[in-house]
Design goal:
It is a single chain. The chain is of the alpha/beta class. The chain is built from 25 helices and 27 strands. It has a 27-stranded mixed β-sheet, with no helix packed on it. Helix 2 runs parallel beside helix 3, helix 4 packs parallel to helix 5 and helix 14 packs parallel to helix 15. It is flat. It starts with a strand and ends in a 7-residue tail after the last strand.
Length: about 700
């Protein structure tokens, strides 16, 4: 049986069958397998298992040795969770994961009442619908004295539920508590902060809540969590007052990670942070998207305690050259690996000093996008000889032209560079030529050059590079490459590892499309985006006939002039058996093209199909609805067409699309309110039908 590993006397002890679309029928067969009597670890994530399946598992008495069970991303709901919670067959259960299972308070109550799982160490209930009542039942369980990990993030828990959790005195071995993305405010946080039982706590996540300075101050007063290593408080309402209290904590000597992304911290709070002398083990400090300016950054840069700092995030604050200069002069962070400064007001003066830093010999990631670097700043970066371990350089939207790019392209020290992001600059053909001539970045994997005014010659230069043999992703979208440049790009024989190619919005016509389709080098291609060009059936047919891209999962060809013949070629191509997403929005498919697509028998893994804006009527919709092979289809977009009642009804009657979550039929020409209501009431649609159209999705 697939996914089985580990055995005792030919009997399986470990089984992983995730994403198999098993359903109740497949589970029934699985349970009957005698080889699984001694099963210890079972993972069945994302298998369309409902409460009946949960009941079947819970009532199966031969699995008494079960130690780990993962049913995440299955719609078992409260009924299924109740079956699991009432289970008394698994006395050895150590790890139970039920994330994304549509569990509410009733299901949480049943789980909380369980008295059999005395060995339970991990309980994952994140991304459900559990509120305060369910949280209370979980918190009041007195059986789980061995519990180490409790995951309740992304639920509906507010102060009342958090207060109940904070009062828990039984989880003496708790090491990790996840409560992020709930509705917890200061009152609930105070209760959690006052807990003195969790002396083994290492990780506390309270991000995406409603915690303000009062709650933060309470956390700062905690003296019980002597082993705390990670505190996540991002996306709250914590300001300078709260931070002052947190930094005064003298107990958290083991703190390694502090995340305060998207809060309300200003210079005063940053100055308070800088004075901390307790966190000698701090490795990651995230302060992105706050209100910190040069004064606060100068103070942080002068901290001499954080000698173990590896990650410093200061993106999207109010840092100018003065702050950047202070950072560049830092000599303490000898272990720094990631420095994130994107979205500030740093100019070439600050960049020059950063580029001259000789302390950060371990630096791997440098993010400077959306600043005011310009050619002078980029030129300074290009002269850096210290960052020999640099793997990722982000310089998008930084006002860099061809002069600056030439300097960067000539850097001989960054031989380990893997990811270079230069989108939304003005490097032009001359800059692209300099990049194409680069012979030092032998490990380059990702190159993003969107919106750079690169034309034919630039495309030729990039396409001629034979050194980047490890290249996996190439983004040249929104340039002026046209057919000629495209021919050079697709003719590169060195890019055998390429997986993701984006050539959208480049005025590529049929000649370029045909060249793409004739490509035999990209045997590992997973994603291809050629949307927004001038491609007709003539070029699209060649793409549709490609028999090399066996790994292709995502194909975007929206906003072209693709018609019937190209649809027929694509639909008949047996090579694309791994295709998951196909976007043909705003083309010229019409009914006949839809009929050809509907005949497809190879795309059994298809999850997303976008056909909006294609003049498809009832006959085309009926043909699409007749397809029985797309059993994994989750989203079908047929908006902005001419589909009326007959076509919509046919779609609604398709019983093969059991995974369907959304069908878009909005703005279908001629569809009256009465007909829409009829569709909505169709029992096979349920709540899946949508008449809204959000162009930002």
């Amino acid at each position: 049986m697939d996914g089985v590993s580990g055995s005792t006397a030919s009997k399986s002890t470990y089984l992983e069958l995730d994403d198999e679309n098993m359903g109740i029928n497949g589970l029934s067969k699985l349970i009957q397998d005698e080889k699984l009597e001694n099963i210890e670890k079972l993972s069945l994530k994302n298998n369309d298992l409902d409460y009946e399946a949960a009941a079947l598992i819970s009532n199966h008495k031969t699995w008494s040795n079960l130690r780990e069970l993962d049913l995440s991303t299955n719609p078992i709901g409260d009924k299924g969770a109740s079956m699991i919670g009432n289970n008394d067959n698994w006395p050895n259960l150590v790890d139970l994961r039920l994330a994304k299972c549509q569990i509410g308070d009733k299901g949480a109550e049943s789980i909380g009442k369980n008295k059999v799982w005395i060995n339970l160490e991990t309980l994952g209930l994140g991304e459900n619908n559990i509120g305060d009542i369910g949280a209370k039942w979980i918190a009041e369980n007195i059986t789980w004295s061995n519990l180490k990990v409790m995951g309740l993030g992304n639920n509906k828990i507010s102060d009342e539920g958090a207060t109940a959790i904070g009062r828990n005195k039984f989880w003496k071995n708790l090491e990790e508590l996840g409560l992020g993305k709930n509705k917890i405010g200061d009152i609930g946080t105070i209760s959690i902060a006052e807990n003195t039982t969790w002396r083994s706590l290492k990780i506390l996540s309270l991000d995406l809540n409603k915690i303000g300075d009062i709650g933060a101050a309470a956390l700062g007063k905690n003296e019980a969590w002597v082993k705390l290593e990670e505190l996540v408080l991002s996306c709250n309402q914590i300001g300078d007052i709260g931070i002052k209290a947190i930094v005064q904590n003298m107990t958290w000597k083991n703190l390694k990670k502090l995340v305060l992304f998207i809060d309300k911290i200003g210079d005063t709070g940053a100055e308070a942070l800088s004075k901390n002398e307790t966190w000698v083990n701090l490795e990651e400090l995230s302060l992105g998207r706050n209100q910190i300016g040069d004064i606060g950054i100068k103070a942080i840069a002068q901290n001499t305690t954080w000698k173990n700092l590896k990650v410093l995030s200061l993106a999207r604050n109010q840092i100018g050259d003065i702050g950047a200069v202070a950072i560049g002069k830092n000599e303490t962070w000898v272990n720094l690996e990631e420095l994130l400064l994107g979205g500030n007001q740093i100019g070439d003066v600050g960049i020059k000093v950063i580029a001259q830093n000789t302390t950060w010999k371990t630096l791997k990631v440098l993010s400077l996008q959306r600043n005011q670097i310009g050619d002078t700043g980029a030129g300074a970066l290009g002269t850096n000889e210290t960052w020999v371990n640099l793997e990722e350089l982000i310089l998008e939207s930084s006002q860099i032209g061809e002069v600056g790019i030439k300097a960067i392209a000539q850097n001989k020290s960054w031989k380990n560079l893997k990811r270079l992001y230069l989108g939304e600059n003005q490097i032009g053909d001359a800059g692209a030529l300099a990049l194409g001539m680069n012979s030092f970045w032998v490990n380059l994997e990702q190159l993003r050059l969107c919106r750079n005014n690169i034309g034919i010659e630039g495309g030729k230069a990039i396409g001629s590079n034979a050194v980047w043999t490890h290249l996996q992703e190439l983004d040249l979208s929104r340039n002026n490459i046209t057919d000629q440049g495209t021919v050079f790009i697709v003719s590169n024989l060195a890019w055998k590892n390429i997986q993701d190619v984006n050539l959208s919005k480049n005025s590529i016509g049929d000649e370029g499309a045909a060249a793409i389709g004739r490509n035999t080098t990209w045997v590992n291609l997973v994603r291809l985006d050629i949307s927004g060009n001038n491609i007709t059936d003539k070029g699209a047919i060649v793409i549709g006939n490609n028999n090399v891209w066996t790994k292709l999962k995502v194909l975007s060809m929206d906003s072209n002039r693709v018609g019937v013949e190209a649809c027929a070629a694509m639909a008949k191509n047996p090579t694309w058996s791994n295709l998951e997403e196909l976007d043909l929005t705003d083309n010229q498919i019409m009914n006949e093209g839809a009929k050809e697509l509907g005949k497809n028998v190879f795309w059994s893994k298809l999850t997303n199909l976008c056909l909006s804006g294609n003049q498809i009527g009832d006959m085309g919709a009926i043909a699409i609805a007749a397809n029985k092979k797309w059993t994994n289809l989750k989203e079908l977009d047929l908006g902005m067409n001419q589909i009326k009642y007959k076509g919509g009804l046919a779609l609604g009657r398709n019983i093969s699309w059991k995974s369907l979550k959304m069908i878009e039929l909005s703005n279908s020409e001629g569809m009256e309110a009465e007909e829409k209501n009829a569709l909505k009431s169709n029992i096979l649609f349920g709540s899946k039908i949508s008449f809204r159209y959000d162009f930002d999705l």
